[in-house]
Specification:
about 110 residues; about 50% helix
């Protein structure tokens, strides 16, 4: 992989920046990751409350995409009624400082 610098973008071969943004981009994925970043399991309905304005369809599809990309884990407990919680993965934890830096950049 070529090194990303201000004068050179690796887009000539495969743009790893675009790949990364596809995985975390969109309106809902970053807010979901931020809610899950606290490290505790979060249930679906709690995510619906904390991610203001998201629809059931968008939450379900975003969670599925994040899980497929290895950024979150879905844990289903064998209880009645069935309980499902979502957790941030180790892979995602490395994103948190980057997202915090972006937030600071956005404030400035």
């Amino acid at each position: 992989m070529s090194e990303y610098t201000a004068n050179h973008c690796p887009c000539e071969q495969a743009c790893y920046l675009q790949i990364a943004l596809k995985r975390i981009g969109g309106k809902w994925k970053m807010p979901i990751l931020c809610v899950l970043a606290h490290g505790q399991g979060v249930r679906y309905n709690e995510l619906m409350k904390k991610v203001q304005g998201i629809t059931n369809t968008m939450l379900a599809s975003s969670l599925k995409e994040l899980e497929n990309d290895g950024l979150i884990t879905r844990v289903q407990y064998n209880e009645m009624p069935i309980r499902v919680e979502y957790f941030i993965t180790e892979r995602s934890k490395s994103l948190i400082p980057i997202l915090q830096s972006l937030a600071i950049w956005g404030m400035e």
